[in-house]
Structures are given as structure tokens and as C-alpha cells.
Write a structure and sequence with these properties.
Shape: extended
Order of helices and strands: EEEEHHHH
Number of helices: 4
Low-confidence stretches: none
Strand order of the largest sheet: 1-2
Number of strands: 4
Mean pLDDT: 83
């Protein structure tokens, strides 16, 4: 993506880029949000395509119609990913609830302070 130059030698945003409120330009796909960016990132990722092209054929039977088999595999994949992501969402939400307490912060500060004191004493006595 090349930047165009204006008559005065200044650079301008690429074609299709939209300025934001601060005058900076945004990429065209930035308006899709996180889900859209992740979707396009995965769809256009050659590594993801190579994984599917190498793994899917071994689960297909040539004597049966291919389309229903691929749909079945896609539904199974979506179900596994959904369960996996819901699991991690629950774990992260629980961890955030536990971490976002004054007691946890005090404990972490005390632990970090203790580790620093021990390392300082070790450094002082090592010479």
C-alpha cells in the first residue's frame, strides 16, 4: 500500500481509507469490528487453509456424497470451538472476579515485595 503525495510533497492516506476524529486514517476493514477482523484474518490465513486441506480428506468417504460429510464436519468443528471458547470465557471471567479484589492486590504486592527483598539479600550476600 503506497501513500500518495500531494502537490506540496506531503503524504496523504491511501485510497479507501477513512479519516478518524483525530485526523488519522483507518484501514477499510477496521469498521468490521473485532469479529469481522478475526473472521477475515482466519479466512485469508494460508496456514488455516492448509490445515483444512490436509485434515479434511482423511475423514471423507468417497462412496458417499461429499457435501453432507463436509457439513457434518463443519458443525462438529463449530461445536468443539464453541465449547472450548465458552470454557475459557468462564475461566477468564472467574479469574478476573478473583483478581479484581483488594485482597488479591495486597497479596500480590506482598509476594512481589518479599521476592524482591529475598533477591536483594541474595545479591548482597553473593559477593
Amino acid at each position: 500500500m503506497r501513500l500518495r503525495t500531494t502537490g506540496s510533497g506531503e503524504r496523504s492516506a491511501p485510497r479507501g481509507a477513512k479519516p478518524t476524529t483525530r485526523g488519522r486514517w483507518r484501514l477499510p476493514w477496521a469498521q468490521l469490528g473485532g469479529f469481522g477482523q478475526g473472521l477475515w484474518s482466519n479466512v485469508l490465513n494460508p496456514k488455516a487453509a492448509s490445515v483444512y486441506l490436509t485434515l479434511v480428506p482423511q475423514f471423507l468417504t468417497s462412496s458417499r456424497p461429499i457435501a453432507p460429510q463436509i457439513v457434518t464436519l463443519a458443525v462438529a468443528h463449530v461445536a468443539v470451538v464453541l465449547v472450548w471458547l465458552l470454557f475459557w470465557t468462564t475461566v477468564v471471567a472467574a479469574a478476573r472476579t478473583a483478581i479484581d479484589t483488594p485482597r488479591f492486590r495486597r497479596g500480590t504486592s506482598r509476594l512481589a515485595g518479599g521476592v524482591l527483598v529475598v533477591l536483594g539479600v541474595r545479591t548482597a550476600t553473593a559477593s
